[in-house]
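INTERNAL AUDIT FORM
Audit reference: QA-55
Scope: verify that the stored structure record matches its stored sequence.
Auditor: D.O.
Record contents follow.
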Amino acid sequence: MPGAARTRTLEIQLLRDIFNASPIGIAVETLEGQPLFVNPAICSMLGFSEEELRNKHCVDFSPPEDAQTDWALFQQLRAGSIDHYQLEKRYFRKDGSLVWGSLSISLLSSHASPLVIAMVQDITDKKKAEEARLRHAAIIESTEDAIISKNLDAVIVSWNAGAQRIFGYTESEAVGQPITILIPPELWDEENQILETLRTGGRIEHYETTRVTKVGRKVAVSLIISPIKDSTGRMVGFCKLARDITERKRAEQALSETNRALENQTAALRSQEELLKIFVKHVPAAVAMFDRDMRYLQASDRWCADLSLDSLQLLGRSHYEIFPDIPERWKEIHRRALAGETVRADEDHWDREDGTTWLRWEIRPWQNLDGTPGGVLIFSEDITRRKQMEELLSEIPRKLIDAQEQERTRIGRELHDDIGQRLALLSVQMQQLQDDPLILSDAHGRIGELQKQTSELATDVQSLSRELHSARLQYFGIAGAMIIFCQEFGEQQKVEIDFQAYDLPSLISPDTSLCFYRVLQEAMHNAAKYSGVRRFEVRLWGTSDEIHLTVRDSGAGFERETAKESRGLGLISMEERLKLLKGTLSINSQPDRGTTIHASVPLGSGTRS
């Protein structure tokens, strides 16, 4: 075969290999939008065979509104007014489900009959993440509570509409300012104590204090403050939720003062019951007054608004008639209060047909002037929105870890599907060059050496991609995946790993499997790097209610607190992963006495399927 023809054949084969191996979906279409050639990646993405895709028109793959936008741009391409375009659109899979794709269209005008090349990348996960971020942002901006984040130096870095409503500063006025602009000078020591608690890993729960607005007005607030950590577990700042409780404090003070006045009253023109009714009617909080049969005597406007009740139709009716779904445990509390006991709860839930309502409540008895029991007063505060915000804040560490795993998966797949295949193809081409008789003899040795280095690099890339995204967990289970990891790690690091697994349950959640696999990876990398020994022991086992993992060596050891502060051993990252599954991490290590890392997770932890 002549050299030029042979080179042309190799080029065609190379292009065909690249077309088939590309992880991005590719289709070559006519100017009428009819597919001529499609690669395996686009077939896999849409769930159709190659023949099925060739028998469809390009507008058949998307909902009408997406197809209309795409086809309008396609007409401009046909008319020659543009030679390429890009857009994000939805695609129908064969099973009827929708996926998002990033579409890039280019005109191939050099061909005798002009063609169009379409490249599509699956961005469904990216779109879902964007939608989740928008939902979270909407919740944060719509809440009446102040949500403020600050860095480790206590400087404000984010400020929502609720914060502006409570404190009076706009976002541009607050961001970049120290948090002390909200704190009365006499309480600065209190803020230092809060920061010290947070920096040592603590959390502030329902802390009631006073803050000051832009115009100098003092506001009573309830604070929830949590550390913000990145995907490695490193603390990067703090998130504060502040609720204005001024109204509630006033109501509590008024209730307390009224009760004291009634208790000390020796002569009054009205009975205590009448005074209480007046108080309850006008108090700016959710309060209701009941007789001994739990019939309504009076209710505040806030009580009626919170529970969607008409005050005119309320009086004289039984509380249990109006709310037949009241839990039996609450009825028992009512009986205790009627017997003279004051009962309160900072958090309690009421499971109703339309969802769960969270309440802060207090129930106390009231007496007639002659000392006989008259009934009970119930103070209630709806804290459902606060609980939703707490749940949202508690999800931040999980979302950071999920984002880290998604990025690991993406990088791992790109290394395997793109970089790895290109290196393999380069190795094949070098082999072909080495076999070419036209290559000078003194170049054969150099090409052989380059081929060897390329093969070694491809092997390293494949190993890294497996470590970043271990599909072995899906195919071999946690024990099988760990065995393979220990074998490969031992060969790469020239160390011996004694791995044993026993008494494992038949079903372990994917969350738990991935958590233990990452803990093992982190622990083994640390042990190989810092212990100074070449033999390690790994044990994985189950008990009646937990799964356990230990990684042990007899090497150099370390001071745990020193290592944690240095952020060098990834201990915080392991702890955060286990904490999300209600698990625990214990580390037994001393200088020159070796290290044992023990992780445990309760059976049934993890929700992803």
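Auditor finding: record pair retrieved intact. The domain at 21-122 is CATH 3.30.450.20 (Beta-Lactamase).
Action required: none
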